[in-house]
Amino acid sequence: MATAVPGLSVVSANSDLVGVEGDLAGDATRPFRLRDAIAALIGHQRAHPGEKGFNYVLIDCPPSLNLLTLNAMTAAHAVLVPVQCEFFALEGISQLKETIDQIRATLNPGLEIQGVVLTMHDARTTLSKEVAANVREFFGPKVYETVIPRNTRVAEAPSHGKPILLYDYDCAGSQAYIRLATEIIERERLIQAA
Question: Domain map of the chain by residue range?
C-alpha cells in the first residue's frame, strides 16, 4: 500500500498472521516462505524494468522469536537491532546474538548484524548512560553513533497514524532519525565499496 511518503509502501500485518504457525506446522519450507516471496518480488521487478521497483525491503519484527521472526531473519541480508536504553534490554542482547548466530549457521549464512541503534535514551539518567556504554562495549563498532532520544512527539506519532517525520519534522526525535538514516546510508556505501 502506498503511503504519504513518496516512494514508501507498507504491507502491514493483520489477523491472518495469527494462525500462520499452525498452518505451516508440517511444512518443511516454513522458514523460507518470506524469503521466497521476496525473491519472487525481485524476480518480478527484474522482468518488468519499466515499473517502479523497491530498493530496500525493511521487515519490522517483534522482540520475540517466533516463526514470523525466523522467516524475517531467513529472508534478510542484515539485521538492524534497536536497543532501548533500559535495564531489561541488556538481558536480551546476548540471546539475540546467539539466535542470529544459529540462523546464520543453519538457515541464512549471509545474515549480518548491520548495526545497533540505541533508542529511548534519556541523557539525564545514569541508567541510560550505563546501558549505552554496555551495548557499545558488547557490539563495538556495530553501534551507530546516532542515539534516538526518549521523545514525547515520537511516542505520539503512531496514535495520529503518521511517521514522526510527517507528524513533527523539527522535533528532536525526527532529527535523530534523519541523522540515523544518513549514518545507515553511509555505512551501506562503505560496505558496498569494500
Answer: 28-150
Q: Which among 136, 62, 60, 122 is positioned nearest to 86, based on CA atoms?
A: 122
Q: Which residues pair with 117 in a beta bridge?
A: 82
- What is the per-residue pLDDT across 43-59, written as a single tens digit (0 to 9) for each? 999 999 888 888 889 99
Give the DSSP H or E segment for 80. strand 78-84
Structure pTM? Answer: 0.87
28-150 CATH = 3.40.50.300
CB atoms within 10 A of CB 92: 15
Q: Distance between CA 112 and CA 100 in Å, rounded? A: 8
Q: Identify the DSSP state of 13.
A: -
φ, ψ of residue 92 in degrees (nearest 5): -85, -10
